[in-house]
Amino acid sequence: MAENIGDELAALDFSAVSPEEFARIVKGLSGRELADVMQGELRGRVLREVFGRMKQQFRPENAGSVDALIRWKITGETEEVFETSITDGTCTVHEGRSEQEPRTTLVMGDAEFLKLVSGNGNPVTMFMMRKLKIAGDVALAAGLTRYFDIPKA
C-alpha cells in the first residue's frame, strides 16, 4: 500500500497542492505510511516545499516584536536541518545550519513533522510523548503555531 501512496505523492506537483489539501493527505496516512514515503528524492521535495511555504503562511500580526531563530532538525533516513528566522514581523527560511545560535531547536521524525505542520498533530501531546524534542526556549516553541496559518484537514 505504501508504494501506491508513494507513487501518488511522487506524482504530485507540490507547488499546486493547497495547504488544506496537503493537510488532508497527511491526515489520511498513518505514521508508518508517512515514514515509508519520506524516502529519497521525494523526502527532499516535500521538506523544501513545506519550508518554502512558511513565509506565505507566516502571520506577522501575531509575531509582534518576536526576534528568534528556530532550528528544525528533521530525522529520518538522514537528518535535515532548516532554520526559520522571525525578525521585525518578517519570516525567512533557509536550508542548512547557520553559525547563529538558535533561540529554540525542534527535533522530530518525518511523520511527526508532517503531522505538526499540517495541523494533524498536537505539539504539546507530541512533546509529552517524546515524539518532539525541544532545546532552548520552550515557551517560544509552544507558541509557534500562533505565528503561522496552520491548515485544518
Automatic annotation (TrEMBL):
Highest taxon above the source species: Bacteria
Name under which the protein is recorded: SCP2 sterol-binding domain-containing protein
Organism: Streptomyces achmelvichensis
Lineage: Bacteria, Bacillati, Actinomycetota, Actinomycetes, Kitasatosporales
